[in-house]
Design goal:
four-stranded antiparallel β-sheet, about 25% helix, 10 helices, alpha+beta, GMP Synthetase, Chain A, domain 3, elongated
């Protein structure tokens, strides 16, 4: 879903117009981490007041909760001025009503706390103009900030800059492997940019969430669209799912393991409960056989003799358990071939087009061969001599 400014139009020939707001559209329909208010059409019981806290979004999906002490009539998409230190900040209302209480409980925020800052007012046109002007300064400032950090030889990366709504403060988000002494850096920034500087370190996953991008699946990054909690991902998740331990395929744009490795991990763990260990070995009269492969959802295991690794035998896990039970009683089976399953190869299905159109070039005219030129090349030039007899 896109806002009216981002939608396609006849003036651009059907191409997206682009509002150039980079996720800060006033209509709040092309933002990151947008929440659908499914309680919007429901009225409150008589005598119950509207919940006095609202959720407000700032640049790149950063969201905070504020208290509506002035009893303002706020709707989703309204631009408001909020309390900040110092001055005020400008943000967009993303959620109002009882659903805010649910979000605060999910985030572990006490709605009765006195530390919750308040909403000052709805933003005036002057507030919006100042806010738009300082946003235009962020990109060139980020380029210059990175140059200064390189000159000081600091092992850090300035990933993003966010100005406060009134332009009184700029927050520099950076990533670093180790602790960085940026005292001299702040002095250089203050002299160059003539504003108050605040440094805030973020993790590599948080950086990818702020900047956004397209993943290897072809969709937008989960962390920048709906994922808000970053759980730790271990290589054991890839091992349980029998994935190749290739860092180039398992790592996301943040350089860490992909968060989607945890999505199906519980299903695999439940399926592996009935499986024998992968290190299971079977003792037979022909020798010891070791497990080579598992098919978790079909319940199959592949075994091979130690002296013939290339020849694998497929056995169902129920029979594997029976064999293991006999081995524990110091009994050996005759061979794996007695328990091996014959896997019939599935026939390949050749799918045709629904209209029977198999070739895309069926309407193209075949190229005509220029036979005359070829014949001229092949025929040798005959020299006719005068016959004295004629």
């Amino acid at each position: 879903m896109a806002c009216t400014n981002c939608s396609t139009g006849s003036k651009t020939g059907g191409a997206p117009q682009g509002c150039q707001n980079k996720g800060t559209c006033g209509t709040d329909s092309c933002n990151k981490l947008t929440v659908f208010d499914w309680l919007a059409n429901m009225s409150l019981p008589s005598g119950q007041e509207v919940f006095d806290c609202v959720e407000i979004r700032f640049k790149n999906g950063r969201k905070e909760f504020y208290r509506n002490t002035e009893k303002l009539s706020l709707l989703i998409g309204d631009i408001v001025a909020t309390e900040a230190s110092p001055g005020h900040d400008i943000g967009i209302v993303t959620l109002v009503g009882e659903l805010v209480k649910v979000q605060m409980k999910k985030k572990g925020v006490n709605h009765t706390s006195a530390e919750i800052t308040k909403v000052y007012r709805k933003a005036s046109q002057r507030d919006i103009d100042i806010w738009a002007d300082v946003q235009l300064k962020e990109e060139p400032m980020k380029v210059r900030a990175r140059e200064i950090a390189i000159q000081l030889q600091l092992q850090m990366k300035i990933s993003d800059i966010e100005f406060q709504g009134d332009g009184s403060k700029a927050t520099f988000y950076y990533t670093a492997e180790d602790r960085v002494d940026f005292r001299q850096l702040i002095k250089e920034y203050a002299q160059t940019f003539k504003t108050r500087i605040e440094m805030k370190q973020v993790g590599f996953r948080q950086e990818a969430a702020r900047l956004g991008g397209i993943g290897s699946c072809g969709r937008e990054l989960c962390c920048s669209t709906w994922l808000t909690d970053f759980r730790s991902v271990n290589t054991s998740a890839a091992r349980y799912q029998q994935l190749s331990l290739n860092p180039q395929k398992l790592a996301g744009q943040c350089g860490k393991l992909k968060c989607c490795l945890n999505y199906e991990l519980d299903t695999y763990m439940d399926a592996l409960k009935d499986f024998p260990d992968f290190d299971t070995k079977i003792e037979t009269e022909r020798g010891v056989a070791y497990c080579q492969k598992q098919d978790i959802f079909k319940g199959l295991m592949w075994f091979a003799y130690a002296d013939n690794i290339a020849n694998w035998h497929v056995i169902h896990i129920d029979q594997v358990k029976e064999i293991i039970a006999e081995n524990k009683q110091r009994k050996r089976i005759s061979s794996l071939e007695d328990f091996a399953l014959e896997i019939v190869a599935e026939p390949k299905q050749d799918f045709n087009n629904a209209m029977g159109q198999e070739s895309l070039t069926r309407f193209d005219q075949p190229k005509r061969k220029n036979n005359n030129n070829n014949n001229k090349k092949r025929r040798p030039n005959k020299i006719v001599k005068n016959d004295p007899k004629k």
